[in-house]
Structures are given as C-alpha cells and as structure tokens.
C-alpha cells in the first residue's frame, strides 16, 4: 500500500498544543513559567506549533496586555522552533481586529479567530467578521469552529466562501461534522486541524493537516506518534497510538471538568509550570487529580 502524501507544513504547524497560560500562586501572569513550558512543549513535548490565549489558555480571563506580553515571552523562548498562533477571538469585530493587530506586533506567526459568541450572528455576518479581521493583518488566519461553545457554527458553505481569502489559511475544527469537514477539505486548500483529540486520526485520514490539542500539554509525543505512523503508512501502529491515548482524552476532556483545569492539574503533578486557574474556574480536587494521574500513567507511563 502506498503511504499517504504528507502535506507541506502550513503556517500554523502540524502537531500544535493549545497551551495553558501559567499563573503564579497569587494568580498573576507567570511569564517565566510560560517560557519554560513553551520550551518543554517544543522540545521534548512533540509540538511544532503553539496556540496561545485560546480556550485552554483562559483567554476570557486574561487582559489584552497580558495576551501581548505572553506572545512576546513565548516567541523569545521558542524562536524559530515552532509557529505561534495567538487566540484573538471576541464577539466584537472591532475588538477582535485590535487583538489581531496587537498579536502581529508582539510577534505571533498567525491568529486564531473564533466565531463570535453570545450574539449569534447569521452566516453572512460571520463571514464578514472573519473577512474584516483577515483584511486587517498580514498574518495567516485560522478559523475556530466550535459551535458547542459559541452557539453558532461556520457552515460548510461559509467555509467555502472564506477559503478564497488569501490570508484565511486554516480551520480548528470542533464542529463534530466529519462529512462537512471532508467536503470543505476536498474543495479548498484550507489546512484542517482537529480540535477534538478523538478525531485527530479520523480527520487526518480524510485530508486533515494535524491537530490543536489541549491533551498535548501532557501527552504531545503520543499524539504526534499517531500522525507520524499514519503518514508513513503504518496504520495499525497509528491505531494503537490513537487507542492508547483515548482514556486520557476522556479523563481530561469528557469527564465534567474543562480541559484547562485538567491540563493544569496534570502539569502541576508533572512538575511543569501551570499554576492555578482563574475564577470562575476552580482547580481539580484531590480525587479527580488522582484519577487524571492514573489515566496519564496508563497512556504515557509513570512520571
């Protein structure tokens, strides 16, 4: 069997971590911790890209100034070893443009723009929102389709329209619509990234580029191994890697706590920078942490 052709590495990378934002014990932004964590993730952590200030990065509770400071610190730490994509989404087009321009000035390589949330604009207005942001910066734009959080998805027909913009280059796909995603992949040059770890391998099999993963904060090499095996035609090995990580994915992402909380709990256990979460989120209790550690050890091994 001929191995699938590996696509060229797009501007956002391929094995991308949705990085947590480390805080100090008193809740302040921990830039030194962010640099150390970023260095780990792009070194032994198996990541060639980082998304900062996304959902996992607690973007709703960090200030605009903190977001820019985080980009500058991480860019200094990783240099040209990884692509840095900055989350700049908001339900306000004007504010989103401001965040995108600030991210570009701070040294980001791309921006992640979520569908406007809460106000739930119609598809035509969603398209105009994304086009306005893409017109305002010189960076590649990754669309973030996560209707479970925003209340509105980016319909495939809207994706097809947006794909014509020269700076709209990718999609973080959390829509749970493999048919719709497959159609857009087949008809455009958009780089599709799984935003749901259980779909990393299925999406790659229909032409996806890679993933943007919360679980990669703690299990990046195992997630990358599944894609690497698939791309060299070792499909049985890819499936084993995929199945091996699923209990950890379930424990971190589908057991009632936000991925930010579970990722920070495990990072702390592993002795890596994380710190507390900001309210209204609260940290995981001892029993939940113990369960997370068991799932981690089952997938990756004892720390």
TrEMBL record:
UniProt keywords, alphabetically: Amino-acid biosynthesis, Cytoplasm, Diaminopimelate biosynthesis, Lyase, Lysine biosynthesis, Schiff base
An example Gene Ontology CC term for this record: cytosol
GO molecular function: 4-hydroxy-tetrahydrodipicolinate synthase activity
Biological processes annotated in GO: diaminopimelate biosynthetic process; lysine biosynthetic process via diaminopimelate
Known catalytic reactions: L-aspartate 4-semialdehyde + pyruvate = (2S,4S)-4-hydroxy-2,3,4,5-tetrahydrodipicolinate + H2O + H(+)
Gene3D superfamilies named in the record: Aldolase class I
Protein's job: Catalyzes the condensation of (S)-aspartate-beta-semialdehyde [(S)-ASA] and pyruvate to 4-hydroxy-tetrahydrodipicolinate (HTPA).
NCBIfam families per record: dapA (TIGR00674)
Protein name (record): 4-hydroxy-tetrahydrodipicolinate synthase
Source organism of this protein record: Streptomyces morookaense (Streptoverticillium morookaense)
């Amino acid at each position: 069997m001929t191995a699938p052709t590996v696509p060229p590495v797009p501007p956002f990378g391929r094995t991308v971590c949705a990085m947590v934002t480390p805080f100090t014990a008193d809740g302040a932004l921990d830039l030194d911790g962010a640099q150390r964590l970023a260095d780990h993730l792009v070194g032994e952590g198996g990541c060639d890209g980082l998304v900062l200030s996304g959902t996992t990065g607690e973007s709703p509770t960090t200030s605009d100034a903190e977001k820019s400071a985080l980009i500058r610190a991480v860019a200094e730490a990783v240099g040209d070893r990884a692509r840095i994509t900055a989350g700049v989404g908001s339900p306000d087009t004007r504010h989103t443009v401001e965040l995108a321009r600030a991210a570009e000035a701070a040294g980001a390589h791309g921006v992640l723009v979520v569908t406007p949330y809460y106000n739930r604009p119609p598809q035509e207005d969603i398209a105009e929102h994304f086009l306005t942001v893409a017109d305002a910066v010189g960076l590649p734009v990754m669309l973030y389709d996560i209707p479970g959080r925003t209340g509105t998805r980016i319909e495939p027909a809207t994706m097809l329209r947006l794909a014509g913009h020269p700076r709209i280059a990718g999609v973080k796909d959390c829509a749970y619509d493999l048919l719709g995603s497959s159609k857009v992949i087949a008809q455009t040059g958009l780089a599709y990234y799984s935003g749901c770890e259980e779909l990393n391998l299925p999406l790659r099999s229909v032409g996806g580029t890679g993933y943007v993963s919360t679980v990669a904060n703690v299990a990046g090499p195992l997630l990358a191994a599944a894609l690497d095996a698939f791309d060299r035609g070792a499909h049985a090995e890819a499936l084993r890697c995929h199945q091996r990580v699923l209990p950890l994915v379930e424990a971190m992402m589908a057991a009632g706590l936000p991925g930010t909380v579970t990722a920070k709990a495990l990072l702390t256990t592993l002795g890596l920078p994380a710190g507390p979460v900001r309210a209204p989120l609260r940290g995981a209790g001892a029993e939940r942490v113990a369960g997370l550690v068991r799932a981690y050890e089952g997938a990756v091994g004892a720390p």
